[in-house]
Design brief:
Rossmann fold; 7 helices
Length: about 190
């Protein structure tokens, strides 16, 4: 079984912000694969279903971004999965331009507090992740304001496309493994 975690902040005030791209991609996966996200467990909204015949659990932690590791650790422990092989974390990345994604098998948090907290709770930085580019902040703009800000109309069009590519990247990770998924999606 795979646990697919989309990072974000709960609440309507955060809907549509750059920081909620993980939630948005998981919602797209839910729609594309008809996996209703209806249950609350392990401090997350969850849904169980299948992607290309593989059992998956979709999860959106409700702990707020900076405490995402608490929910992820609880899910990993309860379902007894190997995070190096069976966990996929999807989140926003300001170091990538809007419209870009990057898949990684491991790595540092890169300044992302949600990933930093997951690494701290899991005790490892080795787990597959899909980073969704949301663009860097403008010079002089506060980082918090940037990631909690919304996309412009032009950016929104690119981001809708990215939801589809994020969904495809997740499917490819499950079907073909990390190396093939990176070959298919990184650098495009």
């Amino acid at each position: 079984m795979y646990i697919i975690v989309g990072l974000g902040n709960p609440g309507v005030e955060y809907a549509g912000t750059r920081h909620n791209m993980g939630f948005n991609v998981v919602t797209r996966i839910s729609d594309d694969y008809n996996i209703p996200i209806r249950t609350r467990e392990h401090r997350s909204l969850c849904g169980k279903g299948f992607i290309e015949g593989e059992k998956v659990l979709l999860a959106m932690p409700q702990t707020y971004m900076n405490l995402s590791g608490e929910a992820v650790r609880s899910l990993v422990d309860y379902y007894k999965i190997d995070p190096e092989e069976e966990l996929i974390v999807i989140y926003d990345d300001i170091s990538l331009d809007i419209g870009r994604i990057r898949i990684r098998a491991k790595g540092s948090a890169g300044g992302h507090n949600g990933i930093k907290n997951i690494i701290a709770h899991l005790g490892t930085d080795v787990f597959p992740r899909i980073k969704i580019g949301v663009g860097d902040k403008e010079s002089g703009r506060d980082l918090r304001d940037h990631v909690l800000g919304r996309f412009s109309k032009e950016e929104n069009e690119k981001m809708r496309e990215m939801l589809g590519e994020g969904c495809e990247a997740c499917r490819d990770l499950i079907m073909y493994g990390i190396n093939e998924a990176m070959n298919r999606h990184n650098g495009h």
